[in-house]
Amino acid sequence: MIPIEKVTVVVATYEWPEALDVVLRALSEQRDRPVEVIVADDGSGGDTAEVVARWAGELNTRHVWQPQDGFRKARLLNRAVLASSGDYLIFLDGDCVPRTGWVSSIRRAALPGWFVASKRLHLSEGFSRRVLEGARPVWRWSSFDWVVRAPRALVTSPPMQSNRPGVLLPVRDRDRPWRSGAGNFQPPYMGYGYTFGVWRSDLEGVNGFDMRLCGWDGEDVDIAQRLLAVGLRCGWPGPDASVLHLWHPYRKQPERVSRVDAIVAVNGLSQLASELASTR
Question: Strand 88-93 vs strand 233-235: parallel, antiparallel, or unpaired?
């Protein structure tokens, strides 16, 4: 096993400072603290910057901001990677609250030749509101708490028909990387983005996220497919790595089709590094 010296968490956000504040609070209570948290901000206003500044001393946060010009998440994540120092990178969506064992579970699963993805529970509208108001520190709840309280806390109607607290229980963990004969893990709803952990060297090997994906939210599926194409495997770090998705109005997602026409991103990390260097 290659020991991780530095874990960087990249939190992608846009104009939801209340959710970002809860996510950063949960990161501050991790049993295994990341060395830095990069808040990757796709053009939010001053309220988001204030949240980042408020947590700067507690979490060593850095604010990576780009002007809002449509959906450019792939470019934003590459900017965050270029600004980071970790040898292992964990990406987290800014509406997903990590449980207290999230970092430590992913660190244990960070084996050579693997990247990781995880699962999420979708919180109901009313319950999400209480989380945002500070009345429910759900990241501290045990798996047993979720089983007992789930009927009141979770979305049970479409489109999340399979949402259930059982995803937090270790009854089916054959896809965990240290298990003999483990297969590749595919997260529910093909959602790699809400938790995605990868060695920096592996991400750089495929030139990071493909910035041709502007206007389409498939950057997470694309990077996973390209990492699999170079021979890496995808594992599940276990139930503690599951995240808690805060409710927001459902947005119909575009059909996710394969975009792997080049395993190494045609317009990725190295191209962005050159672009930024030329503007300094």
Answer: unpaired
